[in-house]
Design brief:
The chain has helices at residues 10-26, 50-60, 109-121, 170-174, 180-202; strands at 27-30, 33-38, 41-45, 66-77, 80-85, 96-97, 100-102, 125-137, 141-152, 166-169. It is of the alpha+beta class.
Length: 203
């Protein structure tokens, strides 16, 4: 009996050619560009071919906007409120504002309000209650504003704030030029004062 090399039989050679043809159909290399055929979808691979594909993915699955959390202190003492003025440059230049700013990593908005007030006015405060919350959606970021009603930590101490911050009464507060979100807070403070007067009248 003689052994037959199956690798050299016509049927085996035909089968090998078929496998190579199928492989060549699935994976082609020409002019430095490779293409993979997967079912009816072909994805091109070249130094620049993947860029449009990546951009299309960004359009289909856009990254969520950055979340910027802001803590703001509405400090009240002896029927007056602590208010400052924005600088001459930057967004909302010259507008009036309450002390506050952006939260740092792992900081709550209320802790941020306390820290920012100390940094901006040199006054230590205690948060007494949440007052107002609002979120603004922009294309580049989502800005989350949290306002907290606060009081001085040491009311008997010298409460002169660092300029440009100052103490104003409610009537003056209502006449100041605030950003839109702060205007809502001023309205809340006015309504709160009216309720107090009414309660005292009926007491």
């Amino acid at each position: 009996m003689s052994w037959v090399d199956l690798r050299s039989t016509p049927s085996r050679q035909k089968q090998r050619r078929k496998v190579r043809e199928e492989a060549d159909g699935d994976w082609r290399m020409a002019d430095g560009q490779r293409s993979i055929a997967a079912s009816s979808l072909a994805i091109s691979y070249s130094p620049y071919a993947s860029l449009p594909f990546a951009l299309s993915l960004l359009e289909d699955f856009p990254m969520p906007p950055k979340l910027v959390r802001v803590g703001i202190a509405v400090v009240e003492h002896a029927d007056r409120y602590l208010v400052g003025v924005r600088g001459p440059t930057g967004p909302l230049a010259g507008y009036d504002e309450f002390p506050g700013g952006k939260c740092i990593a792992h900081e709550t908005p209320s802790a941020c309000a306390v820290r920012e007030c100390k940094e901006e006015t040199n006054l230590s405060i205690i948060v007494t209650q949440p007052l107002y919350h609002r979120r603004f959606e922009y294309s580049h970021a989502t800005v989350d504003l949290s306002f907290y009603l606060s009081v001085p930590e040491f009311p008997e101490a010298d409460l002169t704030p660092t300029p440009p911050f100052r103490w104003v009464d409610l009537r003056e507060l209502c006449g100041l030029r605030f950003p839109d979100a702060n205007q809502e807070v001023v309205s809340l403070l006015w309504d709160r004062a009216q309720r107090r007067e009414e309660e005292q009248r009926w007491a």
